[in-house]
Amino acid sequence: MPPCHSQQPAAERGVRHVDLDARLTAALTAVVAGARRRALRDGDRQIDTAHLLHTLLESDPEVRAVFDGPQVARLLGYLVQRAIGYGLRWQSSVEDSGALPVLCEPEGWSPTAAIALEAACVRAERGGHPRTRGLDLLATIVTDPESRAVEVLVRAGVDVEALPARIEAAAVVEEYEQECTAYEQERAAPEGPTAAPGPVRQVRRSIL
């Protein structure tokens, strides 16, 4: 049986989970693609959690909302130095915190990043979300104290222990905004005998 890992750059192989795109939101799919390009550009063999954190911060406003403005600036300023500074020592090693591996890691991913991605999908499913969001991935990345993303967060002065509560709060705000948008769209729709009431009114009643 061939191993899941190889020495090719991450972006050349890509992620070979046939159902991966179906499990992620369009925004998170773009984040994964961005992390893959960053890994190739930096000459890294695998996508790791620091690549994912970098692209999440750049691309996902819900993820940025978890952090204070100065923290985002510090983190991005630190992450861009990877290719010329601290990240050079990572190029000769594999990000692996020793946790139990997923059943079959997506090729081109570090073991730690693959575990975080799978855990994010499970988190989304348990939360009743049809697709995995950036906040789901951030939540699972920060739970591993040995991950490269957590190392970056600590170096940037972020209180990692406070992040789970901040992520949950950001998720609640995101869901509330989506429900409000859906309710406004329902109100704006023409009334008629064929218009289905839908679940939005129930959601609004629970909110109010």
Features:
single chain; 208 residues; mainly alpha; globular; disordered N terminus; disordered C terminus
Q: What would you note in describing this structure?
A:
- The longest helix is centred in the last third of the chain and has 26 residues.
- It is built from 11 helices and no strands.
- It is an all-alpha fold and 208 residues long.
- Helices cover 56% and strands 0% of the residues.
- The chain is globular, with a radius of gyration of 19 Å.
Weakly predicted, low-confidence segments: 1-18, 192-208
From the alpha carbons, calculate the radius of gyration and give it in angstroms. 19 Å
Give the SSE order as H and E letters: HHHHHHHHHHH
**What is the helical fraction, as a range of percent?**
55-70%
Global outline:
globular
Distance between the termini: 56 Å
Determine the strand fraction and express it as a percent band. Answer: under 5%
Tell me the major beta sheet: none
Number of helices: 11
Secondary structure: number of strands: 0
Structural class: mainly alpha
Rounded average pLDDT: 79
